[in-house]
Write a structure and sequence with these properties.
The protein is of the alpha/beta class and 428 residues long. The chain is 35% helix and 12% strand. It has 14 helices and 13 strands. Helix 2 packs antiparallel against helix 11 and helix 8 packs parallel to helix 9. It starts with 13 loop residues before the first helix and ends with a helix.
């Protein structure tokens, strides 16, 4: 009989946080990142990796290698650089596939997030007169709203009749899986596409992607996810969950830098679906015949076939620097530490016990990412301004939420404790 692991008992002491940090097997990874400093020279308490991840110290060397090869080789760098540019994006494929739970053939790094969502919807949103609706959460990131609404209009349908927006129950902040299921079944014959965020940017809720995909397929719909706040944050098994497609950015938890190159997943069962409509570009063309310059487009099998242009090498280099760190740390180790960080943060916020703040993120660690969203009564941004002046870099989202994201690669329990103390002082 296996020994049952007892949950960690948290304590509201700086010494407890410090002691736990000394036992952290990932604690040394913090030294691999630049931590911004306050004017007085002290490090800030950086808790907004869900908006922009910190810069790995190795990033400069990765980019400078490509600058050096460009300097010395010119165009020959495509073939003779230390990391040849022609196949450079392939150097990231397996590592990225491991992060999202996919096979290498199902993943490609390209473009930016919303561009990729549009390219994927060209192929996977194929409305008919009978089946034309898109399901999205009402509180989706605005860019996703803009994208799906413009796709609906592009196909000649009206938003009012074609967009199903999922809303929580009265008095609740998050969506229940059973309510999502009910809405899907009630509209089953008319739904063409279900497109949700893997983790909702505002509440921090992680959706049950496996179950939602299962339900969507049962009624004949295509199911995709925006993983901007999920990739590098939670355990993903896109292949096993049978998700049709997904897209994500890399500048949040994946630390690729502002505007970093994004990623795409297309399930293996669509790998040879060359009859799917798609916007074509020469980097998605068969590699063996690409440079024969024939006008007949022959897509690569798998996710690579959705590429348009040759990728930006410096952005790939920046992302590669971070993915190498992820590989060294191990995704499962990061997830375990993440749950410890958010659990401790939740505990400390409960210890404050002030009616002016409340956590709207699900209490179940398996139903959230690296983030807790703190709702501030009366939308009072003064509290956020106070903690900012005290050296906390968090994130305000209208109308009334402070998003706090302790990232396991570079945050510690001491960071979480210091944040809670500053928040408590600012409230008093």
């Amino acid at each position: 009989m296996s020994k049952q692991i007892q949950p960690l008992k948290f304590e509201n002491y700086a010494s407890f946080a410090a002691e736990m940090d000394t036992r952290d097997s990932l604690g040394n990874f913090r030294d691999k990142f630049y931590i911004p400093k306050q004017p007085n020279g002290e490090e800030v308490i950086y808790l907004t990796g869900n908006s922009l991840g910190l810069q790995p110290k190795s990033t400069r060397n990765y980019i400078e290698q490509e600058l050096k090869d460009w300097e010395n080789l010119g165009v020959e760098g495509h073939f003779h650089a230390k990391n040849p540019w022609l196949p450079y994006h392939e150097f990231l494929t397996e590592q990225m596939a491991n992060i999202v739970g996919a096979k290498p053939i199902e993943v490609v790094v390209m473009n930016s997030l919303t561009v990729n969502l549009h390219l994927l919807m060209v192929s996977f949103y194929r409305p008919t007169r009978e089946r034309y609706k898109i399901v999205i959460e009402a509180g989706a990131f605005p860019s996703d709203q803009y994208a799906v609404e413009s796709q609906i209009k592009f196909h000649g349908f009206e938003i009012e009749n074609s967009l199903i927006e999922l809303t929580p129950r009265e008095g609740e902040n998050c969506l229940r899986t059973e309510d999502i299921a009910q809405t899907i079944f009630e509209n089953g014959d008319s739904i063409a596409l279900i497109l949700l965020g893997g983790v909702n940017y505002y509440t921090g809720q992680a959706f049950n992607m496996r179950r939602i995909t299962e339900i969507g397929h049962k009624i004949g719909a295509v199911v995709g996810f925006d993983l901007a706040h999920a990739a590098g944050s939670i355990e993903l098994k896109l292949h096993d969950w049978n998700v049709d497609f997904a897209a994500w950015c890399s500048y949040k938890y994946l630390n690729a830098g502002p505007g970093g190159i994004a990623g795409v997943f297309v399930h293996e069962r669509h790998a040879s679906s060359f009859n799917l409509p798609r916007f074509a570009g020469w980097w998605g063309h068969d590699k063996e015949t690409r440079f024969l310059m024939d006008k007949q487009f022959m897509p690569i099998k798998g996710a690579e076939g959705w590429q348009l242009s040759n990728p930006p090498i410096f952005q790939l280099a920046a992302l590669k620097a971070s993915l190498d760190i992820f590989e060294e740390a191990g995704m499962q180790n990061l997830i375990e530490k993440s749950k410890k960080l958010t659990g401790y943060l939740e505990f400390l916020l409960g210890e404050i016990n002030d009616e002016r703040i409340s956590v709207i993120t699900p209490p179940n660690p398996d139903e959230r990412g690296c983030q807790l969203s703190i709702r501030v009564k009366n939308s009072d941004k003064n509290l956020f301004n106070k903690i900012t002046k005290r050296g906390v870099i968090a994130d305000w989202r209208e109308p009334d939420v402070i998003r706090v994201a302790p990232v396991p690669l570079y945050n510690s329990l001491a960071d979480v404790f210091c944040f809670a103390e500053i928040l408590k002082d600012s409230l008093s």
